[in-house]
UniProtKB/TrEMBL annotation:
This is Protein HID1. GO terms for cellular component: Golgi medial cisterna; Golgi trans cisterna; membrane. Signal peptide: none annotated. It comes from the Eukaryota. InterPro entries: Hid-1/Ecm30. Pfam families: Hid1 (PF12722).
Amino acid sequence: MGNADTKLNFRKAVVQLTSKTQPIDASNDSFWDQFWSENVTNVQDVFTLVPAAEIRALREEAPSNLATLCYKAVEKLVKAVDSSCRTQHEQQTVLNCVRLLTRVLPYIFEDPEWRGFFWSSLPDQSQSEDKEESLPLAHSLLNAICDLLFCPDFTVAANKKSGPDKAEDLQAIDSCEYIWESGVGFANSPPHYPAHDTARTELLKLLLTCFSETMYQPPVDLHTAPNKWIQYLTSAENRHALPMFTSLLNTVCAYDPVGLGVPYNHLLFSDSTEPLVDAALQILIVTLDHDTSLGEESATPDNLFINYLSRVHRDEDFSFVLRGFTRLLNNPLVQTYLPNSTKKVQFHQELLVFFWKMCDYNKKFLYYVLKSSDVLEVLVPILYHLNDSRADQSRVGLMHIGVFILLLLSGERNFGVRLNKPYTATIPMDIPVFTGTHADLLITVFHKIITTGHQRLQPLFDCLLTILVNVSPYLKTLSMVASTKLLHLLEAFSTPWFLFSSQTNHHLVFFLLEIFNNIIQYQFDGNSNLVYTIIRKRQVFHGLASLPCDYGTITKSLTKRTRKHLTL
């Protein structure tokens, strides 16, 4: 009953705020404190008790009250930093302010008239005489969030035990000593507390909400109108930029969903780390995607997250990142005797984007991956997800990023050589059973994508075949299944109606012919299956050699087959 009463009090405060059209005095602390008191203890309650319709009504009918609510919430966070957020009550107040801002911010961003709101200054700051230039509200908020992410006994474990009276000053703390996880650039392994993980997750989700402002604006060039939230967080003005980047990276790469491997442990115990890893991964992707360095000379500061990522160079750091990446990417593929006995994580799409960014900004990491035997640990889950997503229109983006990663890897000789390793895994994929190498798996999955994938994947056919062209000189022994699939593709792509239906379709035939030529020229001895299949299907090549090219025959071919898309 007590819990219901406190929620009722919070709800009454919300109703009171949204029903008043007159401005409520900002100095009325007894009223405003209701919103971040201990009445509400989880984020779900805040989202339930503060409905979207009421936030929009507040924005339209009493904008000054909404502005004051945001000002007061940010002010509370700043004051918590000033007092080092040392007590349980202060920490609960911080979390409630964070939840409320996470709820309200999207409705501020969606209204163009409010776009500059967070880039104005706090009322009490604008009146102060000792500051030449007052701090924008957004900077105050971001500074407070970053300070709180390295707050001893709230989001990190204290290095030395001290009572609330001797808490460290958050604004003077060396956050490099409080990096969340050992790994890149940090050898110490700090103790883990679920409460710290939960607090970090809520703060990171507020950061993500701040970054989401771009979603509510018309598309513009990043170089002319950068996201100011991300720009500030990743600039030198954020003194926590390095420890924050390192904490996010290490948290993601050190995460092991299976742990000691006790069956069904994920059903018995809640995992506070997975939501944190998910949020950290999204923060990394969003910040690394904000690259303003390609534009013309401007006053835009460098993105330090990209800078730090590009400067990782030690082999042990690369090994740590790659191991973490392959562990998480292969997690959904793990097969056990007991059904559903191990935890499965579901952020493979974010992992692939992060891997792409890592390879893009750090070429040394890319070369490390290619010379490592673990490159196949990257290939197999990508092929699994490509095969699984091929018919789902909503996952076309996942298909693109997976194919682009393979295209990037296929440009290096070592990747092609590694494909000759026998494939012995038992991953559940709806492809023909075969005995062969990873190259056979690659060809079989690509054939499946081309023949049974969604029609929106047709622009990717060039990329898929380019990957096969790149690796073809190194493929020592193709199985009969893979050989048949390649010839099947040639047979389909060389039909007159398909060749003549688009001015670029003939490129696909060129790619396939180049694959055959490369294998015959460089790996003839071990590829008897392919040679046999080519001989058996020689009429396909004869048909290509005698392909009619007069206007009448072309028109006749096209009218006979009115289908615009390839269906096999």
